[in-house]
Design a protein that fits this description.
Elements: H1 6-18, H2 24-39, H3 50-64, H4 69-73, E1 75-78, E2 81-84, H5 97-106, E3 113-117, H6 123-131, E4 136-141, H7 144-157, E5 162-166, E6 181-186, H8 201-206, H9 209-212, H10 221-233, E7 234-243, H11 249-256, E8 262-267, E9 273-279
Parallel strand pairs: 3-4, 3-6, 4-5, 6-7
Antiparallel strand pairs: 1-2, 7-9, 8-9
Helix pairs in contact: 1-2, 1-3, 5-6
């Protein structure tokens, strides 16, 4: 009986591990994406060099430790582009593309001013900037490490019209450094502490808490800060767009009772409440 060639063993070796961690279809998809993104190989029967084989062995251990593939290959696809990421930023989700598209749909004039609060990898700001090169976009984050990744993505896309700033948005004194905007967009930390039990092990273990969970007990703290900020920093006929937790619709409705905004909820591709849209 002939031995199976090494060039097949590499794929099967990874797949064997993934099948223990994921449903069969997902395991095959992850294996395919891994070889394409890590080594540029779309044919699973292509052999690996000794160096790449060693990388694969190390990555297999990372998979066994429930590390997401996006962090292993250090990139992910979002809104028509690949973004560099690492564990200092949240992994961009397809649901967040609804937020980007909503912002693009809200652009009604030449050279709009846009603020992205909690930019992370820069995926929201840079996706908008790629479609509207005349837009003047400021993107802020409290994390220096996240901003480093965002700037790498900006350089990779050769985008000129996004300015990244380190700002703690919950510190109201920082608002003095910001102008007024036509569009304010944000995917803030919005997950309640008691929802951890609903989350995957890989998310809790590897994705940054600061991007998932608001500080303190009030999980609406970022929305309150954004609503207050918009009173003085949103231009006439301006729009605020925030990604929301699908379970927070009622709580946000109660909160908005105290504000003089017109508002609506936009559903994502799964039909779930995803984006809160405010207008003065």
């Amino acid at each position: 009986m002939k031995n199976i060639p090494d060039k097949i063993n590499h794929y099967e070796k990874l797949l064997k591990v993934l099948l223990k961690l994921y449903p069969e279809r997902e395991a095959h998809n992850i294996a395919k994406i891994y070889f394409q993104d890590r080594f540029g190989i779309s044919n699973k029967s292509v052999n690996l060099s000794s160096v790449d084989s060693a990388i694969l062995n190390l990555d297999i251990q990372r998979f066994k430790n429930n590390e997401p593939i996006q962090y292993i290959v250090e990139k992910t696809f979002f809104f028509d582009s690949f973004f560099k990421i690492n564990k200092s930023v949240l992994i961009p989700r397809p649901e967040t593309e609804t937020l980007v598209q909503s912002a693009i749909n809200s652009i009604k004039k030449y050279a709009p001013t846009i603020l992205d609060i909690g930019t992370g990898s820069g995926c929201i700001a840079l996706s908008i900037a790629a479609k509207y090169t005349d837009a003047q976009i400021t993107a802020i984050d409290i994390s220096s490490e996240a901003l480093s990744i965002a700037r790498i993505n900006k350089e990779a896309f050769n985008i000129k019209n996004v300015n990244f700033k380190k700002i703690d948005f919950l510190d109201k004194t920082s608002h003095d450094d910001l102008i007024t905007y036509d569009i304010i967009v944000s995917n803030p930390p919005y997950i309640k502490q008691d929802e951890k039990q609903l989350m995957s092990t890989s998310t809790l273990k590897y994705e940054p808490d600061i991007a998932l969970f608001p500080p303190g007990e009030d999980y609406l703290v970022f929305y309150k800060s954004i609503f207050e900020f918009a009173k003085s920093h949103l231009n006439k006929k301006g729009v605020v767009l925030c990604e929301i937790n699908e379970f927070s619709k009622k709580d946000l409705a109660k909160l908005l009772f105290h504000y003089n905004y017109k508002w609506e909820i936009i559903n994502d591709f799964q039909g779930k409440p995803r984006v809160l849209k405010l207008e003065k």
